[in-house]
Amino acid sequence: AVGAAMRPGAVLSALRPALPLLLGLSLGCSLSLLRASWSHGAAEERCLAPGPPAPPARGDPPEAAEGRPGPGHEDFRPRIVPYYRDPNKPYKKVLRTRYIQTELGFHERLFVAVLTSKATLNTLAVAVNKTVAHHFPRLLYFTGLRSAKVPHGMVLVAHGDERPIWLMYETMNYIHQHFGSDYDWFYIMQDDTYAQAEQVKALVTHLSINQDVYLGRAEEFIGGDEQARYCHGGFGYLLSRSLLLKLHPHLDSCRNEILSVRPDEWLGRCIIDFLGITCVSQLQGQHYRTYELAKNTEPEKEEEEDFQAALAVHPVSDMTLMYRLHKQFSRIQLDRVYQEIQDLQMQIRNLTALTPAGEAGVTWPVGINAPFLPKSRFEVISWDYFTEQHLFSCPDGSPKCELSGASKADVSEIIESAVEQLNRLYQPLLRFSKRQLLNGYRRFDPTRGMEYTLDLLLEAATQKGHSHVLAKRVSLVRPLSKVEIIPMPYVTEATRVQLVLPLTVQDLDFVANFLDMFAMNTLDTHDNALLTLLFIYHPYDAQRVGQMDVFAGVKAMVGELEKRYADVKIPWISVKTEVPSQVKLMDIVSKKHPVDTLFFLASVWTEINMEFLNRCRMNTISNWQVFFPVHFQEFNPALVYRGEQTASSNTDFLRDGHFDRHSFAEACFYNSDYMTARTKLAADILDRDEVLESMEVFDVFLHYSGLHLFRAVEPGLVQKYTLRSCNPRLSEELYHRCVLSNLEGLASRSHLAMALFEQEQANST
Predict the structure, then answer these.
(1) How far is residue 129's CA from residue 535's CA, in Å, rounded to a whole number?
(2) 85, 183, 626, 637: least CB-packed within 10 angstroms?
């Protein structure tokens, strides 16, 4: 009986943890059944209603009453466009755009037009160009002059008629024709207007592009309708793309029917008469604030809120006033930014105190990422030691070099900033002046920026005139600023690549593998790439070509390829020289190809693949950028594996090797860019051809072209290990780089240490 009484209690204790789950399931099932009964009842009542369907509720569209989206929702319904290809037409491969922005039809944000005249082109227009033009993504100047001399750094459109109305008419036509489909917003201003570029750009980011916008300083027409307004041209005005597209068909009618003296009134009347849109100074919660300058105004003394909040200021009478306005507004903007930084830092301190880490979690400087914490000794970021005269970590690997150029300017600025911060912190009690930099350390932390530690010998002076010399250590950080996207010209992957392969007698053992890879990865795949061989004969071998051609085997391989691929021709060029200078060889090749040829200067150990050729096309831009890839060099398998089986995994193909930064043998560039740089080099060295023996193509572009030199690691270029032959007749620098490339390509330090350890063990036994 006792056991029977205990049995229900044991069951309840076992089910107690599951009771909340069972109660939740029961409650959920009950509510769902109850809701289903309500829905079923409502549906029955609807079905029992006789006669035609009930009319929709007031304000609802007819489609909405039937469960379909209304007429305002057509753009949100997906449409499946069936694919159809005419069987009678030949198939043509569709070349899609490289960037999704182009394919989706995205537009640029803002286009700016500045109206200028003959009297102000070289004065106020130049001042606009020097102050705010570089802040706008695209800015053009429009004038009525017929043959105006364009100031340096300005893009000018001359219409040939100085009548104000005609200038406005032609400007609107030009903007619609050339930029109407590329930009969302169009800002039109005069050259006697100072506009805060950053404020204008911020304004358009808060406005919807789906509305017809005519925004500026609204003014009444003289003797016109009290409700109609036009935007005053002196303070600038903003037009949306949709409004420009609707206005363009009526411009001719406006020119013939509307009479006005002022171009801004003419444009405002045209927009009102044909589109029914009036100028507004406030839209979607955004205000277009302006300020009218009085005569003899001193911007430095203007403290009114309307002035400081102004987006546009007018009229600006001369260049000096334009520069003074720019300086004053820059100071105002800088003060606002510093105040925002202080407010954010205070908020960070207050919030960090509430975190589990407490005040100890506040990083220095406040708001900047914490220093990088290495997880192993291989991730430790080393410090570079420097003084005011020398740097003890040089780019060429030497232990000591003179501090010059950008590094010297960087050190001077950091020391000056450190003394300035100390004075700001301790004044008026103490006044510091620098005597000497005792020690300086710096390192680049990719998570936060450049870090500095300075040991300064300072002289501290008190208010009473007493002075004392002391040493003080300070730490500074130059944080990474806002990331800037550099605009690049548009390129495609359809460009033909011309491979150039220089060959010497020492390279004969590797030619067969190069040609096999070229045939498999380019000829079989029908890639748009051609090959030119450059046979470099020694003078002794050149004299014996009739009896024994050292490149006969290579020529036979080329003949076999041409037989296998009937539409392929692989030409070769024979050169006789003792010193195969890369520049001299490219001079010969350059003259035999068109100026728009894209060259890929390869080496015999290069394994060509489509992935790299596409990157060669994309990273090389005519008259803009050349590409020097850093290939991956595999280590000596005899030292790395020591008789073991090599790794065959595709994921580890970049494991046992290194990127050879000493090699500049591979390069991608356009023939036109090379010819331009080579012309400047020829004018510099005159007839001293021996200088070319100490140069590579990289040096030509580096010193004699204004192009971007893009040098980056290239995992698509993998070279098997081989001991290169270094020509001692080349320059000392080129020979030294070749030797270093061979030495560093043997194996890693760990592999070399293991090989030495095993050798010592073998010798000891």
Answers:
(1) 54
(2) 85
